[in-house]
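Shipment paperwork, digital attachment
Item: protein structure file
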Amino acid sequence: MTVATATVLLCAGGTGGHLFPAESLAYALRARGIRVALATDARVDSIAAGFPASEIVTIASATPSGRSPIKRGLALLTLGRGFGVAAKEIRRMNPAAIVGFGGYPTVPPMLAGQILRIPTILHEQNAVMGRANAFLARGARAIATGFKNVRGVPLKATAPRTHTGNPLRPAVIEAAKVAYPAIGTGEPLHLLVFGGSQGARVMGDVVPKAIGALPADLRARLHLVQQVRSEDLTAVQNLYLGMGLGGLEAAPFFKDLPARMAAAHLVIGRSGASTVSELAAIGRPSILVPLPGALDQDQAANAATLGAIGAALPIAQSAFTPDRLTAELVDLFSNPEKLTAAAASAKSAGIHDAAERLADIVVATAART
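Attachment content:
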């Protein structure tokens, strides 16, 4: 691959969890003088607006799941139309390589690239390979993984597999420079609660009740930052009134979430791949509530990686009750040495140069063609 003229097409869509690692790789490739293009779907147009790509193409996509044969059929038709558009765009761009980050929006461009014999590289963020990546894995030239051990990789996927970690946004790299804040006797306790890019109603249902049951002296020390769904914001704020908290900030979205993670003594959240990787890189202890109902149980597997080293406490949503959370918070805040040890364990698992590792694979794979 000649750096001066090369284009690499990145394929990511559906959620920020897929788009953010692609964004990190884009910065790493551009720093090497490589032109970057992005293929995405309409659902992330607002997020993709600031993506560091020379051009962005929107390709129709859908998820062929669910019980309705009609809906599955319509989804397949949409993917077929997306394939036609993707093939036309790839012929025009003539990329040296195509990199996919999972989710069905990557299927049309990745599959078109494989049929057109363009080298394709998969990046799997989760500890369980998603269905779209599993479908594409047999035609990939290289597979990179966010976690060391990944379940669900098809036996016929013979491409070299490399553990790169999950590429991190620059804001996360900056936040990782902040040391874990010391917890002095009687000093403020900083708790961050969020539920991923789409929010989580369970946090608004459970956390206020749990905090309301804390001893008054702990509540007075508690400085709470909580992400709340827009439609639940007023109700959740009202629940906290009169609790005597040391501080409260509730909002539907925080643009500076990595910095808020760095300021926290404890984080409560879901366990998407980006969240788990960012907690490790920044080095913060957490209580993780995997999203239930996922067919592949990827979030449960992600949480287990931090739980196994004592960096996080995974709790199934069915067990995530106010009483359970109150008990865990009292134990952790009353024994701050547990939080400090968990923070160190999390930090030991962090990978800060994942984007550079992945960029190396992309360049090497393209060069072999």
